[in-house]
Design goal:
homodimer; about 160 residues; mainly alpha; 3-stranded antiparallel sheet; 6 helices; about 10% strand; DNA-binding
Amino acid sequence: MTEPRWLNADERRAWLAQLSINTLLPAALDTQLHAAGKLSLFDYNVLAMLSEAEGRYLPMSELAARTSASLSRLSHVVTKLQNRGWLERRPHPGDARVTTAHLTDAGMATIAGLAPGHVEAVRSLFLDALDPDDVAALARIGEKIVSRLDTDHWILRDNTLPPA
Amino acid sequence: MTEPRWLNADERRAWLAQLSINTLLPAALDTQLHAAGKLSLFDYNVLAMLSEAEGRYLPMSELAARTSASLSRLSHVVTKLQNRGWLERRPHPGDARVTTAHLTDAGMATIAGLAPGHVEAVRSLFLDALDPDDVAALARIGEKIVSRLDTDHWILRDNTLPPA
DNA sequence: CGCGCCTGGTTGAACCCTCAAGCTTCGAGT
DNA sequence: ACTCGAAGCTTGAGGGTTCAACCAGGCGCG
């Protein structure tokens, strides 16, 4: 049983900052979104991912991957958003196990209305703290961390076609 | 009403990575801590902050600040941890409005037992993804973001004495 | 001193997430 | 065709978080 390696000064600073950001940033964005439209940051992201998808629909599993959520969590949330008329569930024609979530026109209108305020909040709470070099460094470092947390995370997918 | 400035490529990468880290990292650490001792990352941090405090106690408000939590959230959690015998509430002698949370010996033993595994998890999920320059950059950038989210955040306090 | 406001903290209800269990369908193997 | 295991998804219960309301003690000020 070896002695654990405790954190050095930089490691501790980086870790404590990450912990604080993790608590404060979603809380602030949740507050803004809740005031603007009674939805959470996670709800918003579900709608946003669908709005950017081809045909404005995605299988539940793919939507779960793109929001870093469990299928269970997503299922509950989709039910809620469905009750508000912002999306629908449909069976997938090719595979009867698959359910797809479709953004409705009302859902599209909702997110289109919310987006400017949300982007403004992301800027003012997060990006405006940084100069362009910081943003580039953070993108690079952030993706390293993501790849350690989930090797196959969707944001790491390259969009080139696989070799023939 | 001006057109919102949408995110450029680096901004989008940085933001999406931050979002994913925000979801995946606490989830992974919660899993490890829950397996090791049926507590959450937040519970752990409450105990950790107390264990590092002088006298192993802090006023509720100060503890809330050091865990980036609302007083309400903290109050519920302290009740839970108190029921497990890991800490106690006591009135503050100087100001009857103040409650202090004290780490018990049992609480100290708990966190001492958990710490090596937790630190190891933080390393393997987070720090080990990065080289020392990355860690230093992340510490610097992270503190910039924290200061924008909360100007008076405790991790930004300098420990030098105020001018006479 | 007495009024009002602020600070520190608690509580209960509503809401959200997690976890485990379970259902249906697909696909591989025989 | 049949079986079995895995994939995709849903559900309900239990526990955690948030929000608004509330209480009590301190502080300033006339």
